[in-house]
Predict the structure.
Amino acid sequence: MFKWKKFLVTGALCALSVMTLVGCGGQQAAAPSSSSSSSGVATTIKVGSAVDFAPFEFQDEGQAEYQGFDMDLIRAIGKEMGAEVEIQNIGFDGLIPALQAKTVDVLISGMTINDERKQNVTFSDPYYQSGLTMVVRKDEQSIQKFQDLKGHKVAVQIGTTSANEVKKIEGVEVKEFNTPADCFMELKTGGADAVVNDRPVSEYFITKSGQTDVKELPDMLTAEDYGIAVAKDNKELADKINAALKTLKENGEYDKIYDKWFGGAKK
Ligand code: GLN
C-alpha cells in the first residue's frame, strides 16, 4: 500500500534538506542504481520494454502513452513502491544488454523466464502464464502440428523463445524479424508459411485487428511464464517487485488489470 503519510513526511524532510538531497533517496530507494526524480521525493525506476507486443506493450497511433497489460502492471508496481516509472522503448534483443549496461533498472516485455536468461538477469516471480502457438494462412492445410513445419518457411521475432524453439525443429527455414507485426506481414504476403509467437499476442492480433485471412492453430509448443527482469546482482529490487506484485494480487489490483486486457478469461 502506498503510504500517503510517509510520503508527505518524507517529502517535507527532503524539502528541508535540499543541500543533502542524495540522502533522501535512500528512504524509498528501489535500488542502488535508481536515481531520484527532480522533486527528490520519489525514486524513479527506469523500465525497458519492446513496445510492439500487444496486448502487453504497444502504442496506438496518435497516443503518447504506452499501453498494455505490462505497462499497467509496472505502473501499479511502481506506485506500490512509491516510485516514478519511466518507460523506454528498446528493441527486444537489446533489452538484456540495456539492463546490463544499467541504461534501465527493470525489464518488463512479455519476457519468458528461462535458464539461459537467468545467467544474465534476475527474474521476479512469474506474473503471467503464456506459451507458443502457430498462425498460418486460413487456407493452409499441410500445417497442423509443430512438427509439420518441416520444409516450411517460418517467421519469428529475433531474440525470442519462438526463434529458439523453431530453430530446434529440423528442416525449417527460419526467417527472423524485429517485431511480431513484421512476422505477420511476411505471412500475409506469402514470404512465410507460419508465424510462431506467444499465444496471447497472436490471439490479440487476430481478434482485435479482425484478421480473416489467417488462423491460429490449437497446438501449443511450450508453456512459458513471464517475469520482470532486473540486473543479476540486484536481488533487493527483485524482492521489492515481488512484494509489490504479491500485494497487487492480494488487493485485487492485478485481477483488475488482467480483466481489462484479457476480459476475465483466465487461462
Ligand atoms: N515471450 C517471448 C520471449 O520472451 C517473446 C517476448 C517478446 O517478443 N516481447 O522471448
